[in-house]
Write a structure and sequence with these properties.
Blueprint (H helix, E strand, L loop, with lengths): L16 E5 L4 H12 L1 H7 L3 E7 L6 H16 L4 E4 L13 H8 L10 H23 L11 H10 L2 E4 L17 H5 E4 L1 H4 L4 H10 L18 H10 L1 H16 L18 H12 L4 H11 L8
Parallel strand pairs: 1-2, 1-4, 2-3, 4-5
Protein name: Phosphoadenosine phosphosulfate reductase family protein
């Protein structure tokens, strides 16, 4: 039984908050454009306050970082709070400051057959820790009460109901709709999927964002995502060769480390080929392509993410 968590503000003083889980990719760009420019959308999904929040993995593409800066400036111009959750804010765990600090700490890598711990520890957990702190500051709730570390989220849910968090899943991604993990998310968070409600797929998001007068960003995922396809590997190697080499070096160190010998010593792609070997296969399949064509292909094919919350 939770203790009574009484806000310092009277309930009538502040309307409920709707949160956009922002990735700086094409789906969340459409949601932000709708929130900024479409009155009917705001009336349906944002009845009160609005917060845009994005957790940083420390391994974002440069284009993603640039678009995040543009989005933050747009929100600032509209007096909309934008929360960029970086490790210095204290919401990332010591073991997961960035993707690379985790790899160096445990001589490991992310691989296709491994659990998606990177998304959970670098995106989901920091996001909701930061949201808890934001609600505490905004509504006058305590951040923690005894052993309850997300006290503000629970207090908000007691007073207003579960907080709506907009997730940028599109039509065609229904496989990603799974129940929230047991615990605080089930009790305090109401995930909503406006793009699915509106019948928008990825192409619809691209077209809609342009029609509303906003730039369409590149799909967002980590530079070193194990779900990159051959063309993504070629683009990373072509445009950011040092980053590709760093990724391959982490893979080599993991494969050679004694603790992985005789066990599940998978490569990143889990096909018994290293990143360099997969890159060679990609070049054999597609031949050398100019950076401009690789950029255009990335804009079209999406991010490959499969996380469900």
């Amino acid at each position: 039984m939770l203790p009574m968590l009484t806000p310092l503000l009277k309930l009538s003083q502040r309307p409920p908050t709707t949160v956009l889980s922002f990735s700086a990719g094409q789906d969340s760009a459409m949601l932000l454009a709708l929130a900024l420019e479409d009155r009917a959308f705001r009336q349906r999904y944002i009845p009160g306050d609005f917060l845009v929040a994005m957790a940083d993995t420390g391994c974002e593409h440069p284009e993603t970082g640039s678009y995040r800066e543009q989005a933050e400036a747009l929100c600032r111009a509209r007096d909309i709070p934008f929360l960029h959750v970086t490790p210095d804010l204290g919401h990332h765990s010591p073991a997961w400051q960035t993707l690379h600090t985790q790899w160096a700490r445990n001589t490991t890598i992310q691989a296709r057959r491994f659990p998606k711990t990177c998304s959970v520890n670098l995106k989901i957990y920091p996001f909701y820790r930061a949201l808890n702190a934001y609600l505490a500051r905004t509504y006058g709730y305590p951040e923690t009460v005894g052993r309850v570390t997300r006290a503000a989220l629970y207090a908000y849910a007691q007073d207003y109901g579960r907080i709506p968090v907009m997730i940028g899943f599109t039509c065609g991604e229904e496989r990603r709709l799974k129940p929230a993990p047991a615990g605080f998310m089930t009790q305090t968070v109401h995930r909503i999927h406006p793009l699915m409600d509106l019948g928008l797929d990825r192409r619809g998001c691209q077209e809609g964002t342009r029609q509303l007068g906003f730039e369409v960003p590149y799909p967002s995922n980590c530079m070193h995502c194990p779900f990159h396809g051959p063309l993504d590997l070629m683009r990373l190697h072509t445009k950011h060769p040092d980053s590709f080499a760093l990724w391959a070096d982490f893979e080599d160190r993991k494969l050679a480390h004694p603790k992985w010998q005789g066990g599940r010593n998978h490569t990143v792609m889990c096909n018994d080929k290293t990143l360099w070997q997969n890159l060679e296969d990609a070049y054999r399949q597609y031949g050398p392509l100019p950076a401009e064509e690789l950029d255009a292909l990335r804009m079209r094919h999406g991010h490959g993410n499969t996380t469900s919350f």
